[in-house]
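One-letter codes give the sequence; backbone shape is given numerically. An example follows:

. . .
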Amino acid sequence: MDRRSHKSLEEVHGTIETQGKKSPWKKLLAFLGPAYLVSVGYMDPGNWATDIAGGSQFGYQLIWVLLMSNIMALLLQSLCARLGVVRGRDLAQASREAYNPFINFILYILAEIAIVACDLAEVIGMAIGLNLLFGLPMIWGVTITALDTFLLLFLLNKGMRKMEVFIIGLIFIIGGSFVVEMFFAKPDMGDLMAGFIPSLPNSAALYIAIGIIGATVMPHNLYLHSSLVQSRKIERTKKGIKQALKFNFIDSAIALNLAFFVNAAILILAAAVFHKNGMFEVAEIQDAHALLEPLLGSSLAPTFFAVALIAAGQSSTLTGTLAGQIVMEGHLNLRIQPWVRRLITRMLAIIPAIFTVIYFGESGTGKLLVLSQVVLSLQLGFAIIPLIHFVSNKKLMGDFNIKWPLRVASWLVTLIIVALNAKLVYDEILGWLTTSENPIYIWVFVVPVAIGAAILLLYITFKSTAKDIATENRKMVPHILDAKVDELAQPLSYKKIAVPVDFSTSDEKSISAALQLGGKDAEYTLIHIVETPGAMIYGDEIDDYETESDEAFLNIYKEKLQEKGYKVSVELGFGSAKKIIPKIVNASDFDLLVLGGHGHTGIKDLLFGTTVDSVRHRVNIPVFIV
C-alpha cells in the first residue's frame, strides 16, 4: 500500500490533455499556462515599490539587476517544473516525504507565514489601486479583496484553462497599461541601454538591488509552479517526460520575460519621469501616481497606472491563495472544503491589513509592505535549498536529475539570493534596534527567531534528504511476521485484549506479547488512532487518503492474524491517541490493554508527552506495557 500524499491540486490535476496533438505548435500551446500564473508573482505590488525607488533614485542604472534576477528566477522555476513533472510531487509534498514530522511542520509554518506576507502585499496593493482609481477608502478596498476567494473558486470550477486565460488577460492589461505609459514618458533609449551594463553607484544602490532581487524571487512561486505543471496530462515515458520538461521551460521563458518587461517598464517610467525631473525620493506608490499627471501632462497616465496596479494585485492574490492551498495540503496532507481553505488564507492577510489601516492610518501600509518583503526574504532559503536537494538526487529523479553544471549554477544562485536576503533581514533588524523605543522586545522576540531560522537553514542545507526519502515507508508499513503469530507459550486467562498499533516496528512486540497472554481462545481488538490535523478537527467525519490508508493497514494486520486462527476485530479512532485510546477501552469490556512503544521519542516526547504514561492513568483495566 502506497502511503504517499494525494494528488497536488486534485480538482485540476491532469485535467488538460497534451497528447494526440500532431502539430508542435498545438502541443506547445497545450503546455503554455502554468508559468503565466507564476509570473504574476514577479510583477506584484511588492515589486512596484522597489522598481519605483530604483528608477527614481538611480535612473536606468539598475535595469541589469532586474535582468539578473529574472535569469535567477527562470533557473529556479525550471527546477520546480522538473520536480512536478518527473516525480509528480509539488515542493510541499516532497518536503513532507523527506523530513521528519517536526521539521516538516516548522517548514510548513514558515511557508504559510511567507504566503500570508506575500498575500498581505497584494491585498494592500489592490486596495491602493482602488483608492487611486475610484477614491475608495483603504479600509473598504482591503475588505473587498475577500471576494477574490470566491472568484478563484468560480474560475477553478470552470477548469484550469479558464483560470489561466483570466490571469493572462490581467497580465496583458498590466503590460498594455505600461506600453501606454512608455508612450507618454518617452525614455532616453541611449541611457536605457547603458543600464544593462552592471554598476552600483553607491551603497544605497546595493540596498535597492537587494530589495529588487528579494522582491522578485518569491517562495510561494516555487510551491505554485511545482503543482501547476501537474495539471497537464502527459505520457509517463522517458520521451513524454523529456518533452514535457522542454515545453514547460519554453512556457517559463516566455512568461518570465513578460514579467521582466513589466518590472523594467515600472523602473523605466520612474527613471524617465521622476529621476529626470530631480525627484529622487519617490518610493511610495501613491506618490508616484500623484506626480504622473503634472509631470507627463496627461490625465490618462495616472489612470492607466492605477488600472495596472489593480490588475497586478488581483492576479497576484488569486495565485497566492492557490499557493496557500498547495502548502497546506502538501505539508500537512490536510484536505478541507476548498472555499473554507481559501477563505482562511485570505483572512490571515486581510486581518493585519485592516488592523494597520485602522490604527496606523493609510500611511502605515507602506511600512507593512516593507515588513512583508522582509518576511519573504527570511523564508526564501527554506524553499530553494530543499528544492535543489530533491532535483539533484538520482535515486528520486532517475535520469532526469540535474547534472553537476546546473547543480553548481543552482547552488551559486541560492548562495547569492540567501546572502543578499540575509543582509536585508540583518539591516532591517539593526534598523529596528536603532529606532525602537523599546529595543528589548526586538532582542527577546525578533533576534531569537532570526537565529533559530539561521540554524534551521544550516540544518536543511547539510542534511541529506536522500536517505530519508528512500526509506520513507520504514516507519509506516506492516511489521508483523509469520513467525510472530505461530503457536507460542501457554496462554493466561485474559479473554478480551485490546492492542493499540501505530504501524511501526514496535507492533511486532506488542502483538506477540498479546498473543502469548491470550492464545487462540482470546478475542483481540487492534486499535489505531488517526492523528492527522484533519482528524483532530473533523473526527470520524474526516475522509482523506491518510484515513483510508490507515484502515487498509489495520485490515492487513487483521487478515494475517485470522489466517493463523486468531479471533481479531479492528477499531479506528480519530484525534489524540492519549485521549481516544482510553475512551475506546473504557467503553468496552476488555480484560487487558497491551501497550507497546510508539513512533517517536526524544524531542517529540518532550513536546507531546508519552502516550503510555497518559493512557495507563486513564483506563480502568490492567495494562501490560511492552
Remarks:
- DSSP finds 27 helices and seven strands in the chain.
- The chain has two domains: 16-474, 496-625.
- The radius of gyration is 28 Å.
